[in-house]
Amino acid sequence: MSHKGHYISPKAWLAFCLYFLIPLGSLLLILQEYPELPSDKVYVRVYWVIPTALALVILAQLGSYFKKGETTRYLLNIGFTLMTMIWMVGLLGGSLVMTTLWNQYEFSLHMDKYVMLIGSVAALNVLYYTFEWKVYHKDRGSSHSHGKKTGTVAE
Amino acid sequence: MNRQQLTYLRVVALIMAGLVASLTIGNLFTIATKGISVTLPSEEEIQWSIDPLEKEILFRTSFSVKNQGIYDIRDIDISAQLVKKDKTPLFSYVKRDLVVLRGTNTTFDLLIPIDLDTISLFDWFSLLYKNTTLQLLLDIDALYMYGLVEFTANEAIDIPWSQPPLNLSDNKTIQAGIQGLCTLFNITQNNSIVSLSDIFSLFSIPEFSYIAGNGFVFNLTITPFSETLKNITCRIIAPLLIVNGAFEFSVSFLVGFEENTPVFCIQEVGIEYVA
Fold it and tell me: What pTM did the predictor assign?
């Protein structure tokens, strides 16, 4: 675990902007611009976005305290990816179909292909984090044993 | 896997994540700023007219799509179905592959011709002589954001239908006769069992002939078929106001009793446009 004082990592800032600030602002704008929309549905999304986005920011920040190859960092990264999916599901209203009313007419947005794309990107990220953990964990192990070996010789 | 390959994978993952993030944010902002809206026709915006020359009823309506988003709206498919009160379809209409480009406001005019030849005679007759409420079932599908988001709208719009100005006669007897025929057709349409009182009321219809100065003709001819059965023939000629022509409608049916059971059966039905 590395301690670099009280700094906020770029990933945490990015997570704060992408998962908290922009979506929350957009949702509040939707509430204001579309009074005809059922506000309770938008509020449910707001209530969902706030805790999940904050969890994402915390996970991103915690991840920065650990070095690549550390199992805790790997688990935090996987948690971050999974939390992103949970955040997305909440933003979509808990289903793949977003139903809303405009001018008294009901419209539906089917997001299944979109969610599939997001899912595949998440899978790609999980794959990357796994490889990152494997490569760096191995390197850390070898450098650790190399250091031990060198120490023995020096002694 | 070495560190170099891992870097490549990281770049790909970051590009993909960035792409998804930009799609999401762009989409969310478009909706939040009212970038996309669809206006479906209201009851008042659905108009119809009758074209006797083409033997068509024309439905006119429109819907508009405002797309100030950053992606085109493609593959817009519209499916419309006009149904009667009892959900019997009168016609179906499909229009496919419409496009609303980004940054445009597009209004689609729907001119829906209903060929009267494709409508059953009973439906035709009830459209001409009855006030009713029709329902326009509208299904709209569209693809947005390179087909990643599918948009659907399913609406049922009530259309109050009033009979066209074909009943040129003010004569109460003619109007009652037409009303009686409507009732008659309702009986046949609903396939309900004809009651004894129905038969008695039809049995007691008097024979009459009416010719108006404007060419409107209503004839009811009653001839005995057997001791207990009557053959009733009705002929209506309805001249049209807008063009020089008329619709001629004739129907003959048997009414009465046979072996103590009421009989009602249509012998012959015909309708034609006479120029």
Answer: 0.60
